[in-house]
Amino acid sequence: MLFKSTPHSGPVSSLFLKMSAFMLIFLLSLAPVLTVLAEELPQESETSISENHSESETLTPQEEIPVVEESEQEDVSQEENNEIEEDNIADGAKLLNPGIQNVDSAINSHIIPRHTDSGIMRYSERSKFDSGVDVKSLINQSTQMPMTRSGSNFLRTFDTGKDIGVVGKGLENAGSRTSIMTVVTDKINNLITAYPGGPGKIK
Fold first, then answer.
1. Residues whose CB falls within 8 Å of the CB of residue 106, separated by 6 or more in sequence, listed in order
2. In a domain, 17, yes or no
3. 127 lies in which domain range?
4. Most buried in the list 36, 91, 106, 174, measured by CB within 10 Å?
């Protein structure tokens, strides 16, 4: 025997043994509970990871939707507007008639002798502009009027909005006053003549 029993060692040893036995039983009773807890903790972690992964998969399609910034929309809109404006300009250019050339020369050499009260007898039956009518201004006004072809020449016939003279012999409504004017140019837009009345044989 390493230790000798003393008069008081018996009750102490008995108490120690009882306490040891109690602790052992208590620890053994906790073992199943600790085992269950150890098994459940990893499952909860895996479940949480799986749920997070599924949420991220749900959000992926939304993240892939392309978003156009406002500045990009404005750029696209501006580019479209520029293209439309260019088309309109091009179309407008096609509709514009070229300017009438040699106006002063034709007025002096042809229109005044024939289509004003010049006193020249051989032109007395031609269409005549009233005195004071601004023939040059009316010719310039006619520039963008629709043109029709007559042989190798082009005619612009339009209503001036006021009486400008008398229709000459050989034309429709000859001898009557009119607000209609006809301007004749050649194929390169040189002025040939201009007179009160509608289209007819050039005189």
1. 190, 191, 192, 193, 194
2. yes
3. 103-196
4. 106
Q: Which two tokens stand for residue 82?
A: 């520029």
Q: How many CB atoms lie within 10 A of CB 149?
A: 9
Between the two ends of the chain, the Cα-to-Cα distance in Å is 161
Nearest CA to 155 out of 171, 133, 169, 166 is that of: 171
Q: What is the pLDDT of residues 12-68, one digit of tens each?
A: 677 778 787 777 787 777 777 667 666 665 554 455 555 555 554 444 444 444 444
Report the domain count for the chain. Answer: 2
Rounded Cα distance between 50 and 55, Å, is 9
Q: Same structural domain for residues 115 and 57?
A: no
CA gyration radius, the chain: 55
